[in-house]
Amino acid sequence: MSTLKVPQSVPSVADDCEQLRKAFAGWGTNEGLIISILAHRNNAQRKLIRETYAQTHGEDLLKALEKELTSDFERLVRLWTLDSTERDATLAHEATQKWTASNKVLVEIACTRSSVQLFSARKAYHALYMKSLEEDVAQHTTGDFRKLLLPLVSSYRYEGDEVNLTLAKTEAKLLHDKITKKAYNDDDLIRIFATRSRAQINATLNHYKDEFGKDINKDLKTDPKDEFLALIRATVKCLIHPEKYFEKVLRLAINGRGTDEGSLTRVVATRAEVDLKIIADEYQRRNSVPLERAVVKDTTGDYEKMLVALLGHE
Amino acid sequence: MSTLKVPQSVPSVADDCEQLRKAFAGWGTNEGLIISILAHRNNAQRKLIRETYAQTHGEDLLKALEKELTSDFERLVRLWTLDSTERDATLAHEATQKWTASNKVLVEIACTRSSVQLFSARKAYHALYMKSLEEDVAQHTTGDFRKLLLPLVSSYRYEGDEVNLTLAKTEAKLLHDKITKKAYNDDDLIRIFATRSRAQINATLNHYKDEFGKDINKDLKTDPKDEFLALIRATVKCLIHPEKYFEKVLRLAINGRGTDEGSLTRVVATRAEVDLKIIADEYQRRNSVPLERAVVKDTTGDYEKMLVALLGHE
């Protein structure tokens, strides 16, 4: 469930572009006007605004935003304004170019998007960077990380509901055997998470819990400092409980020492139109405080206003 | 260049379906009539015939062909009649279900199709088999073969012409180092062939030849019995010289002891509408006999007639 609030009667695209142009004009920028427009238009509407703005004013709206805005507010507005597939391609590109073992953005994009969305992001990656996403992932990652990330970003998972229970049992046992032996980088363990459908993995993990008495992610927590293990846990969580994965990213971003604006911006920009309502409910359940209140407490100025608008504040 | 001959004035789809129905009716089957229609319709026309036939006669044309025809002729007509993406999905499925180390069909499909065609075959695989191609490849192959085949069938290569010459030099050296050490299953060697664009790989292999004096496939021929090495050579050839790869498949199919109808059928059915003319020219250059004459000498009956028709005999 989306948190996006689009007014019942939306101004014409031409009007929106005109207002944005005004917000940029003269000394100073009218940030409130920008928020009142862009934070309340859906993906298709923003795409049309960007196209029309380029035609009318001969400038890419994203470039104009880059010139007029600064810092976290700028990044949030720009990421949000991007078409969702281009946004995914952009985030994935950033992740490959400055990849670190703790970076979970590639897993996030590979495992929380639909198969078609992931493929669309790969297409957008060709167009934007003149190479393939998997090419950059393979080049910029190494060892076990590459072994996991390459098939994840290249996957086109089957999305039907059908489940093979015999297979679920076999593979639950296989996973348990490998995990017991701490063979976390085992070929078959990676194969299962990288290629099976969500429905099938879910059945396998249900059987795992029934048969061996623990959530698999508990068994995968033997060493909290092992970043490869953390990446496998993120994979499992993104595939099966994306709302819990994103809740935790927000929790760590907000509750840590200082705020991790990068993660906060990314989650709000990528999920507002998808399932941010569910993530916010999960956040409140887990932290006993509404997500919006926590965000307001931790952020300021136009950045705060844009976040709150995307969180669906009336 | 295609060898397909479509008549200047093609009968209506309804007429084609009617004639096919007649060819199946009564005692015996009119194989000549079937060839005269199906071997002279392009992919779009055959697709329409199959749809119209199902609507008109309440039966899948492929099922009817299966009932009426037999043996190599049946397989050729059925493979040819299939839409090209469904055909690729079918061939890939056969290859995963009865996979052997010497089977090169997966490499062939992954490396001689365009990125969009390969992706379309993966989509068709979902629809036909309710799972993903990479899922089956990962499950049914093992070890080094899996390490190579999984990224190959999952790839969505960039198809632009741009080449990075610095990268080509670095990676040519890297390939040479690994090959000199006989590290054929090296992560980076596989990464290069599985993810780089054709243009980039071509540049790398040109530099390889200039710098180290030999074609890479010569250096990859240290052990003619090593099936993994043979698969890497097939990968390189399919990516860079598909016409030479297919010429060799035909040569071995025709010139071996007995005929390998499986390979002959597959190459003719999959390439007739693509580049069979180029492959046939390559065959004649390499064997000093026209492909059509070689095929006629090695095959008989309706199978021969259908092959000759697809080879473009007037």
From TrEMBL, chains A, B:
Query: What InterPro entries does the record point to?
Result: Annexin, Annexin_repeat, Annexin_repeat_CS, Annexin_sf, AnnexinD_plant
One GO-annotated biological process of the protein: response to stress
Q: Which GO terms describe its molecular function?
A: calcium-dependent phospholipid binding; metal ion binding
* Protein keywords: Annexin, Calcium, Calcium/phospholipid-binding, Metal-binding, Repeat
Per UniProt, Ca(2+) 3 binds at D298
A Pfam family name for this chain? Annexin
Instruction: Report the superkingdom from the record.
Output: Eukaryota
Which positions does UniProt annotate for Ca(2+) 1 binding? F24, G26, G28, E68, I254, G258, V296, T299, E304
Coiled-coil annotation: which residues? none
Family designation:
Belongs to the annexin family.
Domain topic, free-text comment = A pair of annexin repeats may form one binding site for calcium and phospholipid.
PANTHER family associated with the record: ANNEXIN (PTHR10502), ANNEXIN D1 (PTHR10502:SF104)
Query: Know the name of this protein?
Result: Annexin
List the source organism.
Flemingia macrophylla
Q: What is the lineage of its organism?
A: Eukaryota, Viridiplantae, Streptophyta, Embryophyta, Tracheophyta
